[in-house]
């Protein structure tokens, strides 16, 4: 599936810099709502992909590149808690979470063998947030 109207990085960056960054009450709730929405979207994708893996018998599908982020042990932390922890300790701005989700979505589109599942979700997510933070917050 291809994007019909892809957003150019310069347009996305311009839109993100227009995001209000003042410290009034309206922006203090923004991180929790962005985190909740992102966690919900990722939880649904993970559940769907984990069910599909069980249905096909956990057969290794794809090449080594699509399994590069898989861990041997699943982290015992929900996606919601993981994102809240990143926000608490790194103070990542809400637009970074949105860009990270876009990166994950594009990664899955360009690599059809890659499925976000419980074995790779946390590693993919922290990597996407790090790259998105560099894109959004670095001048």
How would you describe this protein?
This is Cyclin N-terminal domain-containing protein. Keywords: Cell cycle, Cell division. The termini are far apart. The chain has helices at 9-17, 25-28, 30-55, 79-90, 94-110, 121-137. It is mostly helical. The protein is globular and about 45 Å long. The protein is built from 6 helices and no strands. Helix 3 (30-55) packs parallel to helix 5 (94-110). The longest helix is centred in the first third of the chain and has 26 residues, at 30-55. Residues 1-5 and 22-30 have low confidence and may be disordered.
Briefly say what this structure is.
This protein has 139 residues and is mostly helical. It contains six helices and no strands.
Instruction: Calculate Rg over CA atoms.
Output: 16 Å
Please name the CATH topology: Cyclin A, domain 1
Number of E strands = 0
Structural class: mainly alpha
Q: Let me know the average pLDDT.
A: 77
* Intertermini distance: 33 Å
**CATH superfamily heading:** Cyclin-like
**Number of alpha- plus pi-helical segments:** 6
């Amino acid at each position: 599936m291809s994007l019909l109207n892809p957003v150019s990085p310069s347009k996305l960056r311009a839109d993100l810099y227009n995001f209000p960054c003042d410290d009034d009450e309206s922006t203090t709730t923004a991180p929790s709502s962005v985190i909740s929405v992102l966690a919900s979207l990722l939880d649904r994708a993970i559940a769907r992909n984990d069910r599909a893996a069980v249905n096909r018998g956990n057969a290794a599908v794809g090449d080594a590149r699509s399994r590069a982020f898989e861990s041997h042990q699943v982290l015992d932390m929900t996606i919601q808690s993981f994102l809240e922890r990143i926000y608490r300790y790194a103070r990542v701005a809400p637009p970074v979470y949105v860009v990270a989700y876009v990166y994950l979505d594009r990664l899955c589109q360009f690599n059809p063998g890659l499925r976000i599942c419980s074995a790779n979700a946390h590693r993919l997510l922290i990597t996407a947030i790090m790259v998105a933070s560099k894109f959004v917050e670095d001048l």
